[in-house]
Design brief:
5-stranded parallel β-sheet, 7 helices, globular, 4-stranded mixed β-sheet, alpha/beta, 43% helix
């Protein structure tokens, strides 16, 4: 069976950046494209970065059981469509899920064999600086995301692997080593 890797952690911790680096170093990995009710950011493409859904579409998928996991996060909804995951697993590709902590717990319950990695910031202040610095959210949204992040950081001990993203290259090397070991490869 193909391996499933769950990469989780607070918003702004650098999950996307680390996953891009991980996939460059381990090109056999495939990224499952999540669904969301948030609007696309500049340069994001539907079906590539996310499946952008209306609230009604998202709810319909929830009601019909089409999500492996789904979560509400900072006034928006996110989820992994079962079809996204099953398509990749069926062809034997190791799959990476970039999801929120709520969703990671759901995947853990449904797929205990999935490898779960929590990405943590070096501090809450560093996370605040990153969220403000990326310039994608207003101050109210940054504060909402930080409030959620505090609760999520308390969950880090639930995860078998924790990578602190203080220096990007160090965090990436650690993440690659974890995934490569699980795949039986050398980084």
């Amino acid at each position: 069976m193909a391996r499933v890797f769950v990469i989780t952690g607070p918003s702004g911790v650098g999950k996307g950046t680390l996953i891009r680096g991980l996939m460059e170093r381990l090109p056999q990995l495939e990224l499952s494209v999540s669904a969301t009710t948030r609007s696309p950011r500049a340069g994001e493409r539907d079906g590539v970065d996310y499946h952008f859904l209306s609230s009604g579409e998202f709810e319909r998928h929830v009601r019909t059981g089409e999500f492996v996991e789904h979560a509400d996060y900072a006034s928006r909804r996110y989820g992994t469509l079962r079809s996204e995951l099953e398509e990749r697993v069926a062809k034997g590709a190791p799959v990476v899920l970039e999801i929120e902590v709520q969703g990671a717990r759901q995947v853990r319950a449904a797929m205990p064999e999935a490898v779960q990695v929590f990405i943590a910031p070096p501090s809450l202040q560093a996370l605040r600086t990153r969220l403000i610095g990326r310039g994608t959210d207003g101050s109210e949204e940054v504060e909402r995301r930080l409030a959620v992040a505090e609760r999520e950081l308390a969950a880090r001990d639930e995860f078998a692997h924790v990578v602190v993203n203080d220096r990007l290259e160090d965090a990436l090397s650690e993440l690659v080593a974890i995934v490569a070991a699980e795949l039986g490869d050398r980084p």
